[in-house]
Design brief:
Order of helices and strands: EEEEEEEEEHEHHEHHHHHHH
Strand order of the largest sheet: 1-2-9-4-7-10-11
Structural class: alpha+beta
Distance between the termini: 26 Å
Shape: globular
Number of helices: 10
Largest sheet: 7 strands, antiparallel
């Protein structure tokens, strides 16, 4: 839920959140500056309508799905999607699908904001899909974590990180092509199966067999509709769950590995370190 100290534009339909609030005053300024940023785990019935806004903004869907209605167009935004809006934008955003969405946002002020956002390919309210996603997620996490620093330091760090976010979107963003309904439905069925059973899954052969597909076709489906391989998707699900278990349940590394289907804790530790840059035991302490 939104705290009493949060600004009024922050949604109340949020289960868990982390925010960075900087200078929220709306005033003419030169250049480009971050005003706020956040990570929000939304409620299943999340819905927000904007008819004008205080700032220029970018949102990034980390997981789940949302439906964006803007300018007479409707977009279904899956994990990896990014879109932008500005002080004149009018749109509706709502959760869709079985998994409640988790998303990041960053808001900007300054005369250069519109030009920088446009330069990374986010124009006319049309979304992009970023692949691979890991680098962008890490940059957003670092951005929100600036709230640990004094305000003047946080502002400088946030401005630099947001420029890196825009560069990453410009480098890795692509316009989502038309989706073949039958192909997407098959992909969604496989993705949902993996989300439900990821802790027990150990190989793509198991996934392909359970979904009654050829393994090569399964790989093509994921590349087409998510920009990552099914193995990368499965590993990401396992590692994100591992991070939550280490952070909030304080389980031993060996127990976390076993819960996520890794017989060899050393192999689990190597995969975790490759994903997050820290060994699991060091991540838990940090």
């Amino acid at each position: 839920m939104r705290s009493s100290q949060s600004p009024d534009f922050v949604s109340q339909q949020v289960i868990e959140s982390r925010y960075l609030f900087l200078d929220l005053s709306v005033k003419p300024r030169s250049g480009f500056a971050v005003t706020c940023a956040g990570r929000e785990a939304c409620e299943p019935d999340y819905r927000i309508e904007r008819d004008g806004f205080h700032y220029h903004a970018i949102e990034f869907v980390r997981s789940g799905s949302v439906e964006l209605s803007s300018g007479g167009e409707v977009y279904r935004l899956e994990s990896g999607s990014v879109f932008a809006y500005n002080p004149d934008s009018k749109f509706t955003l709502k959760a869709c699908g079985e998994e409640a969405p988790v998303k990041y946002f960053v808001d900007f002020a300054g005369n250069d904001a519109a030009q920088l956002i446009s330069a990374c390919g986010l124009r006319d309210g049309s979304p992009l899909v970023v692949s691979p996603q890991q680098e962008l997620r890490e940059l957003f996490d670092q951005l929100v974590d600036c709230n640990r620093h004094p305000t003047h330091v946080a502002q400088e760090m946030a401005d630099l990180l947001s420029r890196l976010i825009l560069l990453r979107i410009r480098q890795d963003g692509r316009v989502a092509g038309p989706v073949h309904k039958d192909s997407y439905a098959t992909f969604a069925r496989c993705r949902d199966y993996m989300r439900e059973h990821f802790k027990q899954l150990r190989s793509m052969d198991t996934v392909a067999g359970a979904c009654h597909l050829d393994r090569a076709y399964l790989s093509r489906l994921f590349k087409k509709h998510s920009g990552e391989s099914p193995y990368q998707f499965l590993t990401r699900m396992k590692m994100e769950s591992a991070a939550e278990l280490l952070r909030y349940r304080s389980l031993p590394v060996k127990a976390v590995a076993a819960e996520l289907g890794y017989d060899d804790p050393f192999h689990f530790s190597r995969v975790f370190k490759k994903t997050f840059g820290l060994a699991p035991q060091h991540f838990a302490k940090a």
